[in-house]
# Entry
Amino acid sequence: MHEALSEARAAASRGEVPVGAVVVGPDGAVLATAGNRTRELNDPTAHAEVLAIRAACAALGAERLPGCDLYVTLEPCPMCAAAISFARIARLYYGAADPKSGGVAQGPRLYSHAQCHHAPEVYDGINAAPSEALLRDFFRERR
Ligand SMILES: [Zn+2]
# Structure
């Protein structure tokens, strides 16, 4: 989670919404780290989770990431929650809850749907305070 937070801080310094994600392999090694790059890449799908999953799959030369864990500083949105499911991520650890755009514990609650073929174990509130502080400071400066 520490590395996810530094990715979130790095995203903020690039003018991106400060969200960071890390994929850890079954052996505990970090496979990929990423922060949001939607502005830099002109890509609305370039959320930290999606970029980290893509990089981890590329690193492993694999289509899926069974047995891997994903750490992210903010509750994943519905798009990322679906990508996490498609990647067969075993465990999802996230920091701040996202009442506006979250898709895991609120909104669509993606993993509770019958059509969701793989749901990770979910652990929320991990380092929530610093994750929230980063987002709060970022949006305060924009107003
Ligand atoms: Zn997302």
Summary: Residues 47, 49, 76-77, 79-80 surround zinc ion (CB under 6 Å). The first strand starts at residue 20 and ends at 24. Helices lie at 2-13, 38-41, 48-60, 78-86, 128-142.
